[in-house]
Write a structure and sequence with these properties.
23 helices; alpha/beta; about 15% strand; seven-stranded parallel beta sheet
């Protein structure tokens, strides 16, 4: 279907002007399909993911039906999270820019009841809210829906996933029989179709094909690395590609907090967003991200629902999404409004087959890349600085630079070599070019796990053999190195033969642990930078509360102990010795 232009749709002058102000001329696929159907008064069953423009797809026809002379609630929009409710309200306010007498209320848990009571009592035409708080107001009688004309269920699949089915049905049962019901969902599960059959009247189904959802404006990349290398890899990608505004997704609240802490210690302007935070905290974080005071937002999938910030340069999948649909939701937050975007998936070896599933699901190819090495980062830093100098020289008026003539004359009178002067100024401005860069890690894969000729993922047993797993007669799998080591089969002083290289390893005691905010990547980076040992040659690392254990090749033990006892990890003096 060809996308329609907004001026081809039967829209009021007020909406046309608002859409033009928002910079849109052509409707998206879901808007082209859904708006004419909804304007006709029919129920709509829409399948569309985040980033397809579905808010306007239901918002425009909903607003067009509002009679502003009637001071009662005429439309209700239900959505799964507070962030999405706020985002929808924001979009509605843009669309109603030229309808000043149309009022909207946003109601969700964690927000002030008093503010919501005041808004509802004053009279609002549209209510946007989460199921729990909507039921609360219905039970209190502060939200009246007896004259309601339209109800929208946005991201219905996510509301069901979050356990809101009973709440949704309770709300729908209180709606007038004569109403329009618009239901939008990323997936059409049996549960969604069951609600549609029960609460919609002959809905017309509209959908966006997956090929249309996977925006051509998003460059999708992935890298295969070890878990402990992810933060370093992400930081290198950020600097190498010059990324300014980023969303980073983790699967757990704990990982969000841990990663934010790591990034802040690296001097990056990052903050986290997850369900354990109070609403006031979440609002403050989102405000700082929207105005780019914070340029890296680390979030869980649920907390990130409804985040719609323009100009996001890239999305990072720090953890692989737990559901393939989430991958689409995540990357859809970049590459919007015609702008280019990037997505990076940081993949451990055992997750490779999951990426292949996503590629089949999205019918697209995700490109494998390498983590930029130290030399590439240094070269990029130099290029950027040279470009800044050229822009300053070419872009400044003569008077702006002439004010420094007297200083230049004094310096050149005392120091004859201009190269030395320029180099000294560069050092003062840039500092150490290698600042914030760990020694070059070995990001290469220890095992390849490629497609079979058919393009399907490899046999699971073969994959487990590749990862060093063995099967006992009981049928259980266990790691041939890690599990046996924990069972006490180490040689004395912690030495044992490691893997295919038959390299004997020795276990060292390191006098820093969790309470010192030291992680595995910190130890690998420090050992590699100070001793010259390659990151790939460092064995198992165990981080305890007050200390850690690290395995290094037996041939490197004396050098590691000598060098590290004269150095620090993350600015903290460290003791390294043989483990007992």
């Amino acid at each position: 279907m060809t996308n329609l232009r907004f001026d081809e749709l039967q829209l009021s002058d007020e909406i046309q002007k608002a859409v033009a102000d928002m910079g849109f001329a052509e409707a998206t696929p879901i808007q082209s399909q859904a708006i004419p159907v909804a304007l006709s008064g029919k129920d709509v069953l829409g399948q569309a993911q985040t980033g397809t423009g579905k808010t306007a797809a239901f918002g425009i026809p909903l607003i067009e039906k509002i009679d502003t002379l009637q001071k009662h609630t005429q439309a209700l929009v239900l959505c799964p999270t507070r962030e999405l409710a706020v985002q929808i309200t924001g979009e509605f306010k843009k669309l109603t820019k030229y309808i000043p007498d149309l009022f909207i209320a946003t109601i969700f848990g964690g927000d002030s009841y008093e503010r919501q009571f005041f808004q509802l009592k004053k009279g609002v035409h549209i209510v946007v809210g989460t199921p729990g708080r909507v039921i609360d107001h219905l039970n209190r009688g502060t939200l009246k829906v007896d004259k309601l004309q339209t109800i929208v269920l946005d991201e219905a699949d996510e509301m069901l996933n979050m356990g809101f089915r009973e709440d949704i049905e309770h709300i729908l049962q209180q709606m007038p029989d004569e109403r329009q019901t618009l239901l939008f969902s990323a997936t059409m599960s049996p549960a969604i179709l069951s609600i549609a059959r029960q609460y919609q009247t002959q809905p017309e189904q509209v959908r966006v094909a997956r090929s249309e959802v996977t925006a051509a404006n998003i460059e999708q990349l992935y890298v295969n690395i070890k878990q402990q290398q992810k933060t370093e890899a992400m930081c290198r990608f950020i600097e190498y590609y010059g990324l300014k505004l980023m969303l980073v997704f983790c699967n757990t609240k704990l990982q969000v907090d841990t990663l934010v802490d790591e990034m802040q210690k690296r001097g990056l302007n990052a903050e986290g967003l997850h369900g354990d935070m109070k609403q006031t905290q979440r609002n403050m974080v989102m405000g700082r991200f929207r105005n780019t005071t914070v340029n890296i937002l680390v979030a869980t999938d649920v907390a990130a629902r409804g985040i719609d910030v323009s100009g996001v340069d890239a999305v990072f999948n720090y953890d692989f999404p737990q559901d393939y649909e989430y991958y689409v939701h995540r990357i859809g937050r970049t590459g919007r409004a015609g702008k280019k975007g990037m997505s990076f998936t940081l993949l451990t070896q055992k997750e490779r087959f999951k990426l292949q599933e996503v590629e089949r699901f999205m019918k697209t190819k995700i490109t494998k890349v390498q983590v930029p090495d130290v030399a590439s980062i240094l070269e990029k830093r130099q290029e950027n600085f040279i470009e800044q100098i050229k822009e300053e020289v070419n872009g400044s008026e003569g008077a702006n630079l002439k004010q420094y003539d007297q200083m230049v004359a004094k310096i050149t009178a005392e120091i004859q070599d201009p190269k030395q002067i320029i180099a000294a100024l560069m050092r003062l401005y840039l500092g150490d070019l290698q600042q914030n860069l760990a020694a070059d890690m070995d990001f290469s894969e220890t095992r390849s796990y490629e497609r079979t000729d058919s393009g399907d993922r490899g046999n699971k047993r073969g994959f487990e053999r590749e990862r060093g797993f063995e099967r006992e007669k009981t049928g259980n799998y266990f790691s041939d190195r890690n599990s046996r080591d924990r069972e006490g089969n180490r040689e004395s002083r912690g030495s044992y033969n490691r893997g295919e290289n038959n390299q004997k390893m020795t276990r060292l005691f390191v006098g820093l642990g969790k309470k010192h905010n030291v992680g595995k990547s910190d130890i690998v980076g420090a050992f590699a930078a100070k001793t010259g040992i390659r990151g790939k040659d460092i064995g198992e690392i165990e981080i305890m509360e007050n200390f850690s254990f690290v395995e290094v090749p037996e041939t490197e033990v004396k050098n590691v102990i000598k060098v590290m006892n004269q150095n620090a990890i993350k600015g903290k003096k460290v003791t390294v010795e043989l483990a007992n």
